[in-house]
Write a structure and sequence with these properties.
Blueprint: E1 2-4, H1 9-13, E2 32-45, E3 48-61, E4 65-69, H2 76-83, E5 91-97, E6 106-109, H3 121-131, H4 136-149, H5 165-178, E7 183-187, H6 195-212, E8 215-219, H7 223-229, E9 232-236, E10 243-248, H8 257-260, H9 264-289
Parallel strand pairs: 4-8, 4-9, 6-7, 7-8
Antiparallel strand pairs: 1-5, 2-3, 2-5, 9-10
């Protein structure tokens, strides 16, 4: 079943829907979980029109771990919010190949704390399942499984204020996977953590993902994190955001986070991505400072 995230674009914006005959970038269209075609997003700010994303075309393969990097203000989070249905595109089309109608299309993990402070760890993780009316026995088994996988079982009855930042992000991960979405959207979930916690959570996320093989779209500012986690990395241009480059990550799975970084090819790929990204970061800095245009 195909779910059109922006099925009412014409009625909202008056913009024509994109034609379906042109394949996006990134994978064979027949294998795509997400298809993005001629996607554009503009905002009105203080009487001015700001174009956040310009004619973005992309296919994301089913079951892949897809990572997006780009300079600040390039539209990464805006793109993720459109995939989640939280923002409407100005024009273009997003299609999601939905396999099952009895579970959510997506769950989103944000950069900051997004768990309910008045709920225990267990109740936070169970929230999505309870809202869907899943049987209690299934909720117990599913939540128990993911609390165990994220090391949260001893803290099941604790409240968020009793946990560290890293533990709270573990709760977010457990809640997202427990809800069994077809797509997991992650917006810089580890950016506020120290390096030790970040490395640990990257490893735990990879282990859970290896078992579930859910389609993941993951935003990060860290090139190291992108190469560590991703099957494919998309580099976005400075505003308005477009696809500048797509880089396949060749490392086999399962991956050991620390061992991977010892590989010579790891450094070569990080260097290649940063080389492509650097000009966009410089352009974004000029745009923000008002000393030049975002694009040459």
């Amino acid at each position: 079943m195909t779910n059109l995230v922006n099925e009412s674009i014409e009625s909202v914006t008056g913009a024509p829907k994109a034609m379906l005959s042109t394949p996006g970038l990134g994978t064979n269209s027949r294998d795509a979980k997400i298809r993005i075609q001629d996607l554009t997003k503009t905002f009105d700010s203080r009487g001015k029109t700001i174009q956040a994303i310009d004619t973005l075309n992309l296919d994301i393969a089913a079951g892949s771990f897809f990572v997006i990097v780009g300079p600040s203000g390039c539209g990464k989070t805006t793109l993720l919010r459109m995939l989640a249905g939280l923002e409407k595109p100005s024009s273009g089309r997003i299609e999601i190949d939905q396999d099952q109608t009895d579970r959510p299309t997506n769950s989103m993990i944000f950069q900051g704390d997004s768990i309910f402070p008045w709920m225990t760890v267990w109740r936070n993780a169970a929230y999505g399942l309870q809202m869907r009316g899943v049987p209690k026995e299934q909720i117990r088994d599913t939540v128990g499984y993911y609390l165990d996988k994220t090391g949260l079982t001893p803290f099941a009855n604790s409240y968020p204020h009793q946990l560290s930042g890293g533990m709270r992000q573990r709760v977010s991960i457990a809640r997202a996977f427990s809800n069994d979405p077809e797509i997991l959207l992650m917006d810089e979930p580890f950016s506020a953590l120290d390096e030790q916690n970040k490395t640990l959570l990257q490893g735990e996320l990879l282990k859970i993902w290896d078992e579930t093989k859910k389609t993941v779209v993951f935003i990060t500012h860290s090139v190291d994190e992108a190469v560590t986690l991703g099957d494919r990395v998309m580099i976005m241009s400075s505003r308005p955001g477009q696809v500048k480059d797509l880089i396949d990550i060749p490392f086999e799975r399962p991956r050991d986070v620390l061992h991977l970084r010892k590989e010579p090819e790891y450094g070569e790929i990080v260097y290649r991505i940063w080389g492509s990204l650097r000009a966009e970061v410089d352009a974004a800095a000029r745009l923000q400072s008002g000393n030049g245009r975002g694009k040459k």
